[in-house]
């Protein structure tokens, strides 16, 4: 296969040189050019026709987010954000992903040379995955859904605080998943079955991610705390850099926060969540894998299917990166496939079906 052509956009000459060395070390990548600001980048994109753009946020003459929005509107290309701002400002990163960026890598604020070198494998993998990503013209950032009083989470929470959760939905995602999960949760009603989620995201980003999802959903979306009960109308994500497991406690499920080693190179890992759901909830659960790079979650989804849970994967056409869904489908061949816009309704239908008649 021809090498992936990359344009590096960053105002730091040091970072441009380091990224050029890192990416050029892989035979499958060709750095065709660099640019110190978005206006230069615009001209080089026209001239060099890159397959992937790496983009900083804070730059002279035009900030990276404005450039990204214009690029997705006028000439959509796979973009990987590489910026110190993404480490300090999770909201900035999430906004970049909502504008159409495929993925991101946070460069360290200090000791940039040493830090970026330690991220070399991650940067190379994400750029190569981005080359095969499906990128569409951007509609502007989605506004948070207005939750009317009749859809508020307060009433279901009070009414069901001591009830047993009959159904449990487990979702895993990676590259492209922050927006895919938002799209699913914003279609969920306030009294939907409990949802547990693992998204590959670094420590320090999880709280902002949960808060953003909460603004876009009628459900109550939160970072899980160790030992808390899993309740209908709520969606739970692991705190940054920790695994989320589900355990059975009598007639209910509880969250278990796990600081164990990375699994499949990830922490949190989808496989950790799915294996625990298979054991704790069995046929009372529903499992879904959305867009993502790699194969994390495939073995866990198989364990869920073997425990009697229906399984669902996002289809290739609507996945930004079809690595995780494709890997899951190879292991669980009878998993249902669905376009992103139909996943919420399918999850609700599967969760509403009597598990004894599935």
From TrEMBL:
Residues 162-354 form the CheB-type methylesterase domain. Phosphorylated by CheA. Phosphorylation of the N-terminal regulatory domain activates the methylesterase activity. Gene3D superfamilies: 3.40.50.2300, Methylesterase CheB, C-terminal domain (3.40.50.180). Residues 5-122 form the Response regulatory domain. The active site is at residues 174, 200, 296. Pfam families: CheB_methylest (PF01339), Response_reg (PF00072). GO terms for molecular function: phosphorelay response regulator activity; protein-glutamate methylesterase activity; protein-glutamine glutaminase activity. It is found in: Cytoplasm. GO terms for biological process: chemotaxis. Its EC number is 3.1.1.61, 3.5.1.44. The keyword Cytoplasm applies. The modification 4-aspartylphosphate is found at residue 56. It comes from the Bacteria. InterPro entries: CheB-like, CheB_C, CheY-like_superfamily, Sig_transdc_resp-reg_Me-estase, Sig_transdc_resp-reg_receiver. SMART domains: REC. Keywords: Chemotaxis, Cytoplasm, Hydrolase, Phosphoprotein. GO terms for cellular component: cytoplasm. It catalyses: [protein]-L-glutamate 5-O-methyl ester + H2O = L-glutamyl-[protein] + methanol + H(+); L-glutaminyl-[protein] + H2O = L-glutamyl-[protein] + NH4(+). Belongs to the CheB family. Contains a C-terminal catalytic domain, and an N-terminal region which modulates catalytic activity. PANTHER family: PROTEIN-GLUTAMATE METHYLESTERASE/PROTEIN-GLUTAMINE GLUTAMINASE (PTHR42872), PROTEIN-GLUTAMATE METHYLESTERASE_PROTEIN-GLUTAMINE GLUTAMINASE (PTHR42872:SF6). Involved in chemotaxis. Part of a chemotaxis signal transduction system that modulates chemotaxis in response to various stimuli. Catalyzes the demethylation of specific methylglutamate residues introduced into the chemoreceptors (methyl-accepting chemotaxis proteins or MCP) by CheR. Also mediates the irreversible deamidation of specific glutamine residues to glutamic acid. This is Protein-glutamate methylesterase/protein-glutamine glutaminase. The gene is cheB.
